[in-house]
Amino acid sequence: MTGLKQLQERFQAGILAGEDTILDDVKDSARERRSVLFGVYRNAYVARLAEILGNDYSQVHAYLGDEGFAKLVRAYIAAHPSDRRNARWFGRHLPAFAKETAPFTNHPEIAELAALEKALDDAFDGPDATPLTIGDLAAIAPEDWPRLTFQPHPTAIRLTFTTNAAEIWSALKEGVSPPASARQPEPQALIVWRQDDMARFRPLAAEEAMMWDEAVHGVCFGVLCEMLATFAGEEDAGLRAATYLKTWIDSGMLRGCESQQPLGEAQSGAPSFGAGNRASVRPVSQ
Questions:
Q1: What's the pLDDT tens digit per position in 148-189?
Q2: Torsion angle, CA of 59/284/93/122, rounded to 10 degrees?
């Protein structure tokens, strides 16, 4: 007699791997063969996972249409059976899967659309932190500004796209026909984050993207200004840096800052600002 544990393992293998060993423990009914009866469970499992992916990647679905999205979903489910109790994480590998798996690799905008949707969902669910404010900066002495470093909001996610996937996503979100897919002349930098209980994204110009990438890795404000001067000229480099910084603060993209003491000076007393809390949001653009 088959034990409960063995029966459960056979049942799981029948659902996840398509094995038919479980059919030895299933009887035909008066009207259907056992393979048809067990097929109900197999089909329900796949249908539920497909529904989850459809909810998580609604704009990818809209872009591909029902048939194209079904092909992507079937291939993904076969390659990535559910391995978490929480369905929220089932589709986490879809952007990488679409980027690396034929025939979807022939359409890189699919993977980038999926990456944008995933980033918006991750920002939606991300941890809270009280954003840095202009008032926080006003409390910092002018002589400390060159040594200021900044911490990004924990929901901030940087993306780099090679296609016009962001424009396609925006059109689909607005319910209008998307533009034809196209390669970007230069890689497009995007930032995704949460503000005022909504997930947002916007493109970053090359200079701002460079400054953001360096700032979130701990480069101090004085050096950031020097880097901007090298990047696009010394004239108004400090003003450009201050303008980007104010934009980030006004948008809630930073959670804190601190003044790094010069080597040889005591670290105690260095001012720092930033805290944390929580929110609930839904993805929106801009």
A1: 999 999 999 999 999 999 999 999 999 999 999 999 999 999
A2: -170
Amino acid 102: pLDDT: 96
Q: How far apart are CA 37 and CA 14, in angstroms?
A: 12
- Tell me the pTM: 0.80
Token reading at 70: 């079904």
Question: DSSP per residue over 163-222, as a string?
Answer: ESHHHHHHHHHHTSPPPPP-EEEEEEEEEEEEETTEEEEEEE-HHHHHHHHHHTTT--HH
Q: Break the chain into its structural domains and give their ranges.
A: 1-106, 114-286
- pLDDT at position 7 is 53
- Taking the C-alpha atoms of residue 171 and residue 168, their distance in angstroms, rounded to an integer, is 5
Which residue positions in the chain have pLDDT lower than 50? 36-37, 263-264, 266-273, 275-286
Contact between 136 and 150 (Cβ < 8 Å): no
pLDDT digits (tens, 9 = 90+) for 87-99: 899 999 999 999 9
